[in-house]
Write a structure and sequence with these properties.
This protein has helices at 9-18, 20-52, 56-71, 74-84, 93-118, 122-130, 135-165, 177-188, 191-223. By secondary structure, the chain is an all-alpha fold. The protein has one domain (9-223): MetI-like fold (Orthogonal Bundle), CATH 1.10.3720. Helix 2 runs antiparallel to helix 3 (56-71) and helix 5 (93-118) crosses helix 7. The longest helix has 33 residues, at 20-52. 31% of the residues are buried.
């Protein structure tokens, strides 16, 4: 126990037991936001990576996109989608946060795929062309399957980063883990205990997905031998 009334181990465990239904529901919402963001971000990222590798003219547009996204805070991107785009198209808080996370992660995922594609020996493309395939068909059937395998480990790490970044969705009133913790802390005044509890939930989620990513990496390394 921390002296001075700042933290109580008894309150921590009682709140941990009392609030678990709320936090489990919030954890499920957090996972849904993260999954939607990573799936959409992967699609966008692959497209941006292919554009960047297409030629010097298109590369400029891809570089500008990546620079803008990586150079601006995620919270600003969430607010732009939630408040700015609402003038044109009505987006729910869930999709505002998910799309902002997807766009934010797509810039990093694009670089992951660009590196994975460029790591494939150039002779693979030449071999495909010698068999009568077009460049796009060779990319789709030969290069991309190999690049996907190499991109899986860093994509897993990006998923974990997106999971933690999803806490910023609390600022557009989505009841994910951090927003739920804010509400409980405001109602009970057990601020330290509540935020330690939500930190524990994030830690457990990150540890679970880190284990999954490590298992996938191990299986991929074994299959390549």
């Amino acid at each position: 126990m921390i002296v001075g009334g700042v933290f109580s181990i008894e309150i921590f465990f009682s709140e941990l037991i009392r609030t678990y239904p709320f936090f489990l529901e919030a954890a499920w919402l957090t996972l849904r936001i993260t999954l939607a963001a990573v799936l959409l971000g992967t699609v966008i990222g692959v497209v941006v990576a292919l554009i960047k590798l297409s030629g010097p003219v298109l590369k400029v547009f891809a570089d500008i996109y990546i620079t803008i996204i990586r150079g601006t805070p995620l919270i600003v991107q969430i607010f732009v989608l939630y408040f700015g785009f609402s003038q044109v198209i009505q987006l729910s808080p869930f999709w505002s946060a998910s799309l902002a996370l997807a766009v934010h992660n797509s810039a990093y995922i694009a670089e992951i795929f660009r590196g994975a594609i460029q790591s494939i020996d150039k002779g693979q493309m030449e071999a495909g062309r010698s068999l009568g395939m077009t460049s796009s068909l060779t990319m789709r059937r030969i290069i991309m399957p190999q690049a996907m395998r190499r991109a899986v480990p860093p994509l897993g790490n990006q998923f974990i980063i997106a999971l933690k970044d999803s806490s910023l969705a609390a600022f557009v009133a989505i009841g994910e883990l951090f927003r739920t913790a804010q509400g409980i802390a405001a109602g009970t005044f057990n601020t330290m205990e509540t935020y330690l509890i939500v930190a524990l939930y994030y830690l457990v989620l990150v540890m679970v997905f880190t284990w999954i990513v490590n298992r996938i990496e191990h299986r991929l390394s074994v299959s390549e031998r």
